[in-house]
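Field log, afternoon session.

UNIT: design team B
ACTIVITY: writing a sequence onto a fixed backbone
BACKBONE:
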């Protein structure tokens, strides 16, 4: 599915670089979710989110020294809106859902996110998805669902 999403599969391609960064992001996201699942029974989701943001702030703050912040200064209201809506509220709710769902179930629900992204990009940005986007996305989501069903059946004695 990921191969289909790339118009050309060359390491110099910005699309491929973006896809590879997306895969790395998904791996980090999965590790984070597994770590949080261990602590969600003990701590409130808001507290866990606070610790996560605090740690990431300390880890990522040095990048401002190398990258500078001139490009972001005009974007502060949008960055704050994004931080509040998607990170603070969205991820806190997701962390709270781990108290009631298995990680695999919560991840399947979260895998619908790209569909929302495509729909929002269509309506707000006027982006028309290509057939490769539809087909690649369908393959990725189908794989997640099929693998989750398969692993669920394995866990039933």
């Amino acid at each position: 599915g990921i191969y289909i999403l790339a118009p050309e599969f060359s390491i110099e391609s910005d699309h491929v670089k973006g896809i590879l960064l997306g895969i790395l992001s998904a791996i980090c996201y999965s590790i984070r979710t597994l770590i949080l699942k261990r602590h969600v029974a003990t701590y409130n989701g808001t507290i866990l989110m606070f610790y996560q943001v605090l740690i990431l702030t300390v880890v990522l703050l040095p990048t401002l020294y190398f990258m500078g912040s001139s490009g972001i200064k005009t974007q502060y209201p949008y960055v704050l809106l994004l931080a509040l809506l998607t990170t603070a509220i969205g991820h806190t709710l997701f962390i709270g859902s781990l108290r009631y769902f298995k990680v695999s179930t919560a991840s399947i629900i979260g895998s619908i996110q790209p569909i929302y992204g495509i729909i929002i990009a269509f309506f707000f940005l006027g982006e028309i998805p290509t057939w490769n986007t539809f087909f690649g996305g369908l393959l990725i989501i189908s794989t997640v669902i099929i693998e989750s069903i398969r692993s669920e059946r394995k866990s039933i004695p």
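LOG NOTE: Residues 14-39 form the longest helix (26 residues).
NEXT ACTIVITY: expression trials, pending approval
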